[in-house]
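Researcher: We're teaching a course module on how sequence relates to structure. For the next exercise, students receive a sequence and then see the predicted structure as tokens, so they can try to spot secondary structure elements on their own. Here is the exercise chain.
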Amino acid sequence: LRLVPLVGRPATTMTGWEQMWSKGLAPGQAFDASRTEPAFARLLEQASVDPPLPAVGSKALVPGCGRGYAVVSLERAGYVAEGLEIAPTAAKVAEAYIRSQGAVAVVRTGDFFGLELERQYDFVFDSTFLCALPPSLREDWATMMAGIISPGGQLITNIFPIREDNEPDPADGDIGSGPPYALSPSLVERLLTRAGFVCLGMEPVADSLRARGRREVLARWRAPASQ
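Model: And here is the predicted structure for the students to work with:
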């Protein structure tokens, strides 16, 4: 994982994430789901997926990985997994959790928007990362994803939180307050297709598999062949 220097803005002072983690964030508290999102865990465990997931041994990244649950799941599924956290305390907590699970994955401290655009990852999982970003950075998020995922590689987005059907779609401009900021399948699809991604599948998550008790949609995207 290579990061370019941040210019003009210290990463951890731009947000309250370091403050939250340094005060002590217990498993199950706030955004912590105490586990890998069940829908994503089940996807990794499936013997056959159409189209197939990236090959075992591929390089995977979880930006905003929190305690590192998904990082461990990716490693156990056979991927060379890495986590990325903007808050140093979060990275330390994640490393401790990962080691406690017998895994060897590394969690780096840094700003996602400081990653080198080398298309170095074959597999990226985003859950509660896009929704935590200021809405003004959403298009940059999609551009970065296209820049770090290898041609034909895959991005999995756990789209959350999602408003009820009778509420305004954030894709229409009703941003609301956050974080977490409301998302919708149409909003994420618009962001990613503009960046060259192709949707490989999008499924509402069954109630029994919801990680945080609210609506989720799990979507798969194929990265653009070229930029």
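Model: If you want an answer key for the exercise: The CA atoms of residues 63 and 84 lie 5 Å apart. The longest strand covers residues 149-159.
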